[in-house]
Structures are given as C-alpha cells and as structure tokens.
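Retro notes, item 3 of 5
We never archived the inputs for the pyridoxal-5'-phosphate complex last cycle. Fixing that now. Sequence and ligand:
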Amino acid sequence: MICDFQVSSLQFPLTSKRSKTAITSLQLPYNNMIESLVRKNIQQLKPYSSARDEYKGKTASVFLDANENPYGSPLNRYPDPLQEELKRKIAEVKQVPAENIFLGNGSDEAIDLVFRVFCEPRIDNVVAIDPTYGMYEVCANINDVEYRKVALDEHFQIKAEQLLKACDQHTKLIFLCSPNNPTGNDICREEIVKVIEQFRGIVIVDEAYSDFSEQRPFRLDLGKYENLIVYNTFSKAYGHAAIRLGMAFASTEIIALFNKVKYPYNVNELTQQKAKELLAEGMSKICQRINLILDERTTVMQAFAQLPLCEQVYPSNANFFLAKVSDANRIYNYLVDKGIIVRNRNSVHLCGNCLRVTIGTKEENTQLLSALRVYKP
Ligand SMILES: *Cc1c(COP(=O)(O)O)cnc(C)c1O
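Structure as it came back at the time:
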C-alpha cells in the first residue's frame, strides 16, 4: 500500500497521539542566501494588515473591527488569514511543522508567488525541465520572466549538471516536478538532491502526485535544505480539486515571504471547513482510494499496451500514464465523439503522438478501453 501518510508514520514514530507537540519548527542554519534572492521591493514591502491580522486573541466576543455584517451567520465573518487550525491538521498528516506550511488557492497560487517574491521582471530568469506542468511557463510569462527549458532525455530523466549549466547569475528558480506531468515518471531522486545542493537559488519540487509514488517525498527532508520549496495539493490524491487548496512546504523564512505577498484572505472559509472535515475523517478512506487507483493503473496500462493502436505505454508513478499511439490527433477526436476525453499531448516536446490518460473508475476505464478496441485506423 502506497500512501504518504503511511510512509511518514513509518519513518516518523513521532506521529503517535502522545507526541503531537513534537512537530516543531525546523531549525535551519543561519545563512542569508534567501534574503539575497528576494526582490528588493518585496524585502522592503510593508504588507497589508487585515483586521484579523491585528487582533489574534481568543477571548474577545464582540467583533466590530472588520466592517462585517453582524447578521447572516455562519459565513458573515472573514476567514482566518493564516488558516492556523487547518495547518495544524495538515502538519500532522504531512509530517511538516505548521510554521513551514503555506496554503493557497490551489498550487497555482504558490507557483505564481515564487515569481512575485524572487524574480525581477525582464532581469531574472528561471530554469525548468521540458516537458513539464504548463503553469510554470504561463506564470513566468505573466510575470515577464525568462523561462529556460532543459529537455528531458528519452527516459524522461535529467542530469543535474544539465540544469545547472542552463543557469547564470540571474537564475533565481529551478522547477522540478516529480512524478512529472505529463510524462508520469519519478525524476531520479539523486539528481534532484544534486540540484538542491549545488544551485545557489530556489529549487521547487512539485510533488502534486507523490502519493501515487514510492519515492520518498522531499517535504520530509525540508530541514536539510533552506532553498527547497515543495508543492502538494488537495486536487489529486485527496480528491478535492473543486475546493482549490494547494500547499507549499518551505523554511519559515520563505513561508513568511509568501504570507507577506499573498492576498489577505486567500483561502476562503468554505474551503478551510471542507479541508478540515476531510482530514477529520482520517486518512484511511483517502489511502483506500489511492490504492484502488494504483490497482486500476496496473490493469489499464497493461490492457492499453495490448491495443493495436498503442505503440508504447510509458512507466507511471502517478494517477495517469502517457502512451504513444499510432495517430494521437485522430484517436483523440474519435474518443471525443464518443464522449470520452483524454489529454492530447501530441504538440508537446518529446510527446509526439502521445495521449495522457487519467486513471478513472473501473467503469470509466472499461469504457475507454472498449471504445479503443473497436477503433479502425
Ligand atoms: C494538477 C497539478 C497541480 C495542482 O494544481 P492545483 O492548483 O493545486 O489544483 C500542481 N502541479 C502539477 C504538476 C499538477 O499536475
């Protein structure tokens, strides 16, 4: 059974009920590396202070400080701007101290924030593997920051030195995604470690799919690396894409910078409540579903590989797989006509004639395979 919760409870006996308080802030050696990477305007920024920032006590009962409407409970009040109760719950599940957690409106908010905090438009640049998740490049373009792509090899792997070679003195960020989207594979852990240890800038490891992988998640090693930011999300393994809740794990210094720049009430009350409800149910249902998806992944990938239209199914450590087919555009359109949507990655670098297929329910997967079995080239 693969499940982040299990991995961490094995490696961290501190998760026992008695020792919840044992999860304390990560102590990092003093070093002004992060400070030197931050944009000057952000370093000097005096952040907006909301009513709920200013008064954080627990004893008051009359709140006349935020111009809220006193009627219309239970959603008439602004939510907790720093989501402290929710972070305490996430800290237990993810085995990362609450002080080292940032929550955003999807991971996408945290992706945008690294640019706004660290990258000077038109001067700084970032480096990323190619192909990978499309939002990094979109956010780079929105922020007017040069985006440098370093191609993966034919096994969709990368050597640290290739990424480092693409950097210069204006490179602030390196984006890695493992398991990678759209290729589905884990990026070799030793190479990621080399990048983190050798790059004098921020390394982002997007682990949106780590619950489906057996590779040790990098968030468990945050204490070793002051320049590491790890992303997780409620959208995939946790089955809550609709509530828009993303997580970033990093040193307290980086978390403080994110908090300084984010919108004051970036995670709404309904989302915070829903996430707390989900975690209060315990992890067993989530783990069960992850394992169901993993079993289905094996079955579907094997069946897909047998299809006459299939040329290659690439290995997957995620809840989807990439497959090379005879004619991706035509097969994609054929499936659309039947009401079945997969992701056509034909135009993506190294993914010519490739489709990316998400693992659905047994019934959905059967529909896909049945339709493809009667496809006529
Ligand atoms: C799906 C996905 C996310 C999740 O983004 P959210 O904004 O949290 O929904 C993040 N990174 C990658 C690589 C993804 O594929």
